[in-house]
Amino acid sequence: MPLKALAGAPLLPSREASPENETVLLGLRDRPFMMGEKYAGQQLRASREGARPEILKFHDAFQRQLRALGVPMFAFTFVRSSSAQDAAYAAGNSRAQAGESPHNFGMAVDIVHSRRAWDLTRREWAVIGHIGKDVAARNQLRIDWGGDWETIYDPAHWEMRRWRSLL
Questions:
Q1: Alpha-carbon distance values, 134 to 37, 62, 143 (Å)
Q2: Which of these, 80, 97, 129, 143, could form a disulfide with 84 (CB 3.0-4.6 Å)?
């Protein structure tokens, strides 16, 4: 029987609500941490200036869902300047140079776990991915998840679908 969140709703979308996924989700929860100052500060970390309304709407809805589930996560970055993008590329933290990333145009967000940052297992990221994709679908937002990509695995990354065509 699936675990319940608010008002008897399953923790995960019904197609993903297996006992194994529910157990993984429980391992990501940390409600006490979410009551502290560090979590509150993390929620203000990433500047929203220059981020597109669609990506902000996705982020806000995703965060509401994660908070309801007790999973502490935060936006690490929305918008990256050209110099920050080139620095991320040079450090090996991005495969995109300036002008090649949706972050340079406010069309992406990287969302990480508040206590473990990027250090989640593939299974844990998959559960987060299911939640985010469900949030996007329910809000009729065309968002792609970096955990689904075949050429690179970037599970913290969410971007507007076909963002280049929106430039």
A1: 29, 9, 10
A2: 80
